[in-house]
């Protein structure tokens, strides 16, 4: 019997049924037939330490004995309080207030509303959002509006609002990006720059230098424009530091976190804001209230998982593991330097990228799905973004696991070149 499930980002005409996963274990997914598949992309970048980290699982079990969902407009609870204090401690200085939601998209939506609310409550007319070319911030109407326009959102275009875009800083062309932001900020209409720090993820794992982020930050500060750092993907160690912003010495006005906030165990998100932004919403005038909520805000079980994740970061050598993965990637990426048909090789932290020179068809070409199938057969979950093959493994991954993934990538590229896929 066919399943009634409609899966995300899945063309069911080409993939009528999907394999079931029976269990997860460390860096591996275990298919129903018992086959172990390396989760080389951390299940859409959420699993940081590995599947089912024992401390996080234990915290969830404990929390289940006390809580389920609790309305968060009327009450608070320890897991949310403990987590908020922990997040403020680890975030760049000045981000003193924590607003909870439940996905990366909602974390960004909340950030956009905070930015506009701040200027609105101060009686200022600033409502334009600046984004970077090739960005991705989610799939809700608001976050799609701020992301790259193209095949993914063409049908919904009439619902999307306009934003201002600065070019991605290709090497040698950084000044154009800076000049574009400067020009836009001078208009006096800009409320915020929304940006993925150091790596544009779904837009093709495009990497830019920390120095540029610092320069962009300087421009926003000069023009009293808010900086929203979307660290939904880059946060929790992916780029080599806990947060990517750290590498640029940048403290944003608003910080969006999700994915690895619970180590990937449960859905949760947090949007951190400065006291200035919080104060702009604090008034005896009730119209200045921050009007946002969702039913499952600050779910206690998810918050308890996130508190345990903070303990893992405190008590285990997570950054050492990440540094080891970075070195292993560097050594293994070298094999592609002499390969033909490669447009670019790049890496940062636990993210390694091999960009193929062909095809130009982007996401709609059948190269990605062909490679994906080949990689799965070889025992690794790797989902190329069009012609961009990347790895983003959980931090428990071993050298042997990485060898499996890299061998699969090399062989897949060879087979593709020979027309054998
Ligand atoms: N922002 C960034 C940078 C992301 O990479 C993603 C998802 O990949 C999102 C936002 C949206 O997160 P979610 O899929 O949890 O809504």
Question: Could you list some keywords that capture this structure?
Answer:
421 residues; alpha/beta; Aspartate Aminotransferase, domain 2; Aspartate Aminotransferase, domain 1; 2 domains; 13 helices; 36% helix; globular; binds pyridoxal-5'-phosphate
Mind explaining what this structure looks like?
- By secondary structure, this protein is an alpha/beta fold.
- It has two domains: 54-315, Type I PLP-dependent aspartate aminotransferase-like (Major domain) (Aspartate Aminotransferase, domain 2), CATH 3.40.640; 317-417, Aspartate Aminotransferase, domain 1, CATH 3.90.1150.10.
- The chain has helices at residues 42-45, 54-64, 78-90, 104-121, 141-146, 174-186, 210-222, 245-248, 275-280, 300-315, 318-333, 367-377, 399-417, and strands at residues 21-25, 28-31, 36-39, 95-101, 128-132, 164-166, 190-195, 199-200, 206-207, 226-230, 254-257, 269-274, 342-348, 351-356, 380-381, 388-391.
- The strands form four sheets. Strands 4-12-11-10-7-5-6 form a seven-stranded mixed β-sheet, with helices on both faces. A four-stranded mixed β-sheet has the order 1-2-3-15.
- α11 packs parallel to α13.
- The longest helix is centred in the last third of the chain and has 19 residues, at 399-417.
- The protein is globular and about 65 Å long.
- Bound molecules: pyridoxal-5'-phosphate.
- Pyridoxal-5'-phosphate binds next to α4.
